[in-house]
Structures are given as structure tokens and as C-alpha cells.
Write a structure and sequence with these properties.
This protein is mostly helical. It folds into two domains: 1-111, no CATH class; 113-194, Cytochrome c-like domain (Cytochrome Bc1 Complex, Chain D, domain 2, Orthogonal Bundle). Helices cover 59% and strands 0% of the residues. The protein has helices at 3-22, 33-40, 46-50, 56-68, 75-88, 96-110, 114-121, 139-146, 152-162, 181-192. The longest helix has 20 residues, at 3-22.
């Protein structure tokens, strides 16, 4: 397989993942749901993750296996995701306290700022973070690179919708074709002010 065909194949896979992310099942709202969605959807359909009901020890083991396979997770992220999955996707189902926390989280998410909602809905945080490179560049690095470029907002909004490759390495960014122009503009404005 040539480098070009490997890159094209990787791009196709990431595009398919992005399309699947848009059609994913909704996680039970709760502390850690957004992080779980963002990190797991990079490699899995959420349906695959949530149909499994495991004990805490089994979720801990699963998380360690994902890290060994290359999942880009910090120890804190592992703890948060494990806590979330062990609370809401265990064999017995969520406890009454977890259900109450879920209701509170759903209410908070409904009132979350629009940028946070867009970042979560489009799984942006699966590949990006504010301060450090994950799979894609840190938002602060993007802002620094494009701070003096007047054309950056339009170029970046187009890249969000159509995907891209090469500006930050060979790992392609999948397209987000369902992202509206106003939402793309809002995300780009937010990134460029980091």
C-alpha cells in the first residue's frame, strides 16, 4: 500500500467515524458523559460501548486495554470515564443517586454555553484539547498559528465542515457535513480567541 493510498484509507475511515459520531446513541447524562462520548467515539460507535454492562473491575480492565491499544487518555480521563461507565453502565443499572445526578447533568447540559454544546455534540474533544496536542492540535496552537491571518475564519470554518489534512501532519481531520455555517463560525471564533 502506498503512502497516498494509506492516507486516503485513513481519511475515509475518519470520515466514516465522523458520520457515525453524528448518528450515535445518546449517553445517559451524568458526570463524565461528555468526556466518555468525546474519547470513545474516536474508535467506537457509542452503541458498542453502552450495550456492554460490566462491573467496575471489568470497566477498569477495559480502560487499561484501550490505553495499551493507543487510546489518548490521561490518568484523570481514565478515572472519570471509568467512574461514569461503572455508574451508568453496570449490570444493575444506575442507582437512585446516579439517576438524580443524571437529571441534574441533563439540566446543566441544556443550559451549557453553545460552544460547549457544539464541542461535545461533534466529538471535537476526542481529538483536541485547549492546551496540548491529542490527535489533532491544541486549540491554543491553532489560535497562535492563525492570529494574524485575516482569511483564517473562513478557511477554518470550511475545514471544519469538509475536513482536511496536512496543515498539522498526516492524520486527517474528518468532515462535519452536518455542522451549520453559523455553528462553524461560532466554533472558529471561539478557537481563535484561545
Amino acid at each position: 500500500m502506498t503512502r497516498r493510498s494509506a492516507t486516503a484509507a485513513a481519511s475515509a475511515v475518519l470520515a466514516a467515524l465522523a458520520a457515525l459520531a453524528a448518528a450515535q446513541v445518546e449517553l445517559v447524562p451524568g458526570p463524565g458523559a461528555d468526556l466518555t462520548q468525546a474519547k470513545c467515539v474516536v474508535c467506537h460507535e457509542m452503541e458498542h460501548v453502552v450495550r456492554v454492562r460490566q462491573s467496575r473491575a471489568e470497566w477498569e480492565d477495559t480502560m487499561q486495554r484501550m490505553v495499551k491499544r493507543g487510546a489518548p487518555l490521561t490518568p484523570d480521563e481514565i478515572r472519570i470515564i471509568t467512574d461514569y461507565l461503572a455508574t451508568y453502565y453496570n449490570r444493575e443499572g444506575p442507582s437512585a443517586e446516579a439517576q438524580a445526578a443524571s437529571a441534574q447533568a441533563a439540566a446543566a447540559q441544556a443550559q451549557a454555553d453553545p460552544v460547549t454544546q457544539l464541542l461535545n455534540r461533534n466529538a471535537c474533544l476526542g481529538c483536541h484539547s485547549l492546551e496540548k496536542q491529542v490527535i489533532g492540535p491544541a486549540f491554543r496552537d491553532v489560535a497562535a498559528r492563525y492570529k494574524a491571518d485575516a482569511a483564517a475564519p473562513a478557511v477554518l470554518a470550511k475545514k471544519l465542515k469538509e475536513g482536511g489534512q496536512g496543515a498539522w501532519g498526516q492524520v486527517p481531520m474528518p468532515p462535519n457535513p452536518d455542522l451549520t455555517d453559523p455553528d462553524a463560525k461560532l466554533l472558529v471564533e471561539w478557537v481563535l480567541t484561545r
